[in-house]
From TrEMBL:
SUPFAM superfamilies in alphabetical order: Six-hairpin glycosidases
Gene Ontology terms describing biological process: carbohydrate metabolic process
Classification lineage: Bacteria, Bacillati, Actinomycetota, Actinomycetes, Geodermatophilales
Name the UniProt record assigns to this protein: Prenyltransferase
Domain of life of the source: Bacteria
Length: 354
């Protein structure tokens, strides 16, 4: 399994891809999307790179549009895919709550709270009758009536983190609470509300990872499609009908397994995907196993970030370690990094326990 020193090297590899202005793309010179940038910033916070994480969040804040949205893609700070996607609008709430848990940085929360509020207000405007949230805005500003299960499961978590931030800011948002309740009901009971993308592993595990499914229902869901998606010794497929395992999906599956108490299985999945690790601690995105080939030929910050977040959840090293694995409750924030995190990243706490 991963040692603290290995996790620190992966955090350093993510940091090495960050631009001087704070932008955190997939890799230096590559595309940036808001969701994956937030995930990479969370990994920086786990590794103690708080100034870098805050710079990534402030970069996003500076590019939020007046309606609360972001472009779907940027390159060199320029919008290259202007479409509005609901999961992009919501995910900063998860990142900011994660940062608060790690650092207790009141200045950052205060500064970015209006940005989170605008983003989640847009999400609630994109909610459809029945509770699901449209995946995008049409050119006329109305929500598309197609809802994507993975994105909605992520938005369920984002709304709940937003409610926690609202309480912290002293500005309750009852509309968000209602939106989260309706969305959670849709995720649990209305599969017909979402486009059929069941061949993708994210649609399998994300309702558990986002916290909409808990207890026996979550355990049963993960068991039901295990053989469709998990390749023993290699990790999880991205798509059920393709011989391609991907690191981020494998580590997100590990987080979902940890959320249902299957710690040994979670550790096994993180260990299985280590064939994607490069010498500098970065991670290749995926592996086509019949061809013995890494594909695509890129090492993405968000893949590395998923590894770091899974390792933190399993090691219990930072105050934010339970964000993805304790979906029934949002933990209270700490005011500083725990001593265990310091020791872990210095190598003094050994490996992620099994």
């Amino acid at each position: 399994m991963l040692s603290g020193g290995q996790v620190a090297a992966t955090v350093a590899a993510i940091a090495a891809e960050q631009d001087a202005d704070g932008a955190l793309p997939w890799f230096r010179g590559g595309q940036l999307d808001p969701w994956d940038s937030v995930e990479a910033a969370m990994a920086l916070d786990v590794g103690g790179e708080h100034e870098r994480a805050a710079a990534a969040y402030r970069w996003l804040a500076g590019r939020q549009r007046p309606d609360g949205s972001w472009a779907a893609e940027y390159r060199a700070g320029v919008e290259t895919a202007p479409e509005v996607e609901s999961n992009h609008a919501g995910y900063l709430a998860v990142g900011l709550w994660h940062s608060w848990l790690c650092t207790g940085d009141e200045e950052l929360v205060t500064g970015l709270w209006p940005v989170v509020r605008r983003g989640l207000d847009l999400v609630t405007r994109m909610q459809l009758p029945g509770g699901a949230v449209g995946w995008a805005l049409r050119p006329d500003g109305t929500p598309d009536d197609t809802a994507l299960l993975t994105g909605n499961a992520s938005l369920f978590q984002a709304l709940r983190c937003g409610v926690a931030l609202a309480a912290l800011a002293g500005e309750p948002q009852p509309d968000w609470e209602l939106a989260a309740d309706d969305l959670g009901t849709a995720l649990r009971t209305r599969p017909e509300a979402f486009a059929d993308r069941s061949r993708y592993s994210m649609d399998w595990y994300y309702p558990v990872l986002g916290g909409a499914l808990t207890g026996p229902a979550a355990t049963e869901r993960l068991a039901a499609d295990w053989d469709r998606f998990v390749v023993p010794g290699l990790g999880a497929r991205c798509v059920a009908d393709r011989p391609w395992v991907t690191g981020a999906e494998t580590c997100e599956l590990a987080l979902a397994l940890a959320a249902v108490g299957q710690r040994d299985a979670a550790v096994e999945q993180v260990a299985a995907m280590q064939h994607l690790r490069a010498d500098d601690g970065s991670y290749w995105t995926g592996f086509v196993y019949p061809d013995d080939a890494r594909w695509p030929v890129e090492r993405t910050t968000w893949t590395a970030a998923a590894v770091v977040l899974a390792a933190d959840a399993l090691a219990g090293a930072t105050p934010a370690c339970g964000l993805f694995t304790s979906p029934g409750a949002l933990p209270a924030a700490g005011t500083e990094r725990s001593h265990s995190a310091v020791d872990w990243l210095a190598g003094g706490a050994g490996t992620v326990p099994s």
